[in-house]
Amino acid sequence: MTVLCTRTATAPATVEMLQGVVDVAAAEWNGLARRGFHLHAWFLAAERCGWEARHVAVRGPNRLRAIIPAYLTGANSLNNLHDRWLGPLSRVMPFAGVSLRPVISVQSPFALVPDPLGDPAELPPVLIHRVLETLEARAEADGAKAVAWACVDDDNAALLQVARERGYAVLYAGASARMPVRWASFEDYVASRSKSVRRTIKADLEAVRSAGLRTSLLSDFRAAAPAMNALYREAFRRRNGRETLVPKGFFDELSRCPSQGIQAQLTWSGERLVGTSVNLGTRRLLEGTFSAFSPEHRAGPAYFNDLFYEPVRLACREGIEAIDLGATALYAKALRGAALRRRMILVRGTTPSRHKVIRTIGQLVARHTEWKERRALGPLWNRHLSARQESGR
């Protein structure tokens, strides 16, 4: 375990590696959680299924101040940097002898979500330097190709500045959609939309009713876990032409770790499960993952009901401040009221030659990502995203 002691303007702090989520009690861990993907049960289920933790903890004299979630990710890690960031290039790079595996990636399991747990004010620049120093040393010990923070909001000035000072490539990583929840009820949300969007929402909901579909939201979803697993794996195979890297026992493991913030959103046609996703939430932020639908409902009204409408109902009912809708289908999300947010990737190769290759390839990926978004979003690009030029050191 690496322990570095730093004295800040407020109090001395130690920076150390954790063996995993089990090193921290659930109540203490969740006390720092700022979003659904931060929840202790989510990490516990993933690490029981093989995710290799490289978390960094920042401790004050009397309490845990922050946790930077990180994993050693490789070819068997779903949502690893090589596949998710590089996109189509990930298939041709191995022929050129280039790979981003393994990498120490600052992220939550199964999600390129790099936000530290805890108050951002607890991580002044001096401690961010120590955190990165710790991760970089561990990457060298692990034989990793790089240290990466993927999908960092581009308004995180302190982290971006420290990364540049340490020689990281700072590159555009694409936009994500987030919906602030300002309504007392779902009906208020619908009323707040334009006339054309209200018609779309009402048509979607009527189509769900006409199809005889019913939805359920379950914290205890042990009975449904096998059907969720089967539907997700089938949908992934159909969409990607290959098997998912989600461990076969993950849904069962997650269902055995009951948590108030983790719920299964299920869509049924009679007794048949035709839609599934997992909602994770704190009072500040709700987010979903592992969405899957049977072929007849994929990308239709049931999909939008799962992606938008049911989460809005839940957020209004529970007083949740915002919904993170992710990085896909940005046009549809923006039309339904989401704000689009620019994100950056911070990546540093563990050797000068690796870093040069990663930086060069990353610049190409960043340009391609922005081009795709501009083409897909049209006028919405200028309305939601103010592009900034990045040097990509």
Topology:
Blueprint: E1 3-7, E2 12-17, H1 26-32, H2 40-48, E3 56-59, E4 64-68, E5 70-73, H3 81-86, H4 89-92, E6 103-106, H5 125-142, E7 146-153, H6 157-165, E8 169-180, H7 186-192, H8 195-210, E9 213-218, H9 225-240, H10 250-255, E10 262-269, E11 272-281, E12 285-293, H11 301-318, E13 322-326, H12 330-335, E14 339-349, H13 352-377, H14 379-384
Parallel strand pairs: 6-7, 12-13
Antiparallel strand pairs: 1-2, 2-3, 3-4, 5-6, 7-14, 8-13, 8-14, 9-10, 10-11, 11-12
Helix pairs in contact: 5-6, 8-11
Describe the fold and architecture.
By secondary structure, the protein is an alpha+beta fold. 39% of the residues lie in helices and 25% in strands. The chain has a ten-stranded mixed sheet with strand order 5-6-7-14-8-13-12-11-10-9, with helices on both faces. Strands 1-2-3-4 form a four-stranded antiparallel sheet. It starts with a strand and ends in a 9-residue tail after the last helix. Mean pLDDT is 89; it is low at 388-392.
Mean pLDDT: 89
**Structural class per helix/strand content?**
alpha+beta
Helix percentage: 25-40%
Give the helix tally.
14
Radius of gyration: 21 Å
Intertermini distance? 31 Å
Largest sheet: 10 strands, mixed
How are the strands of the largest sheet arranged? 5-6-7-14-8-13-12-11-10-9
Q: Kindly state the number of beta strands.
A: 14
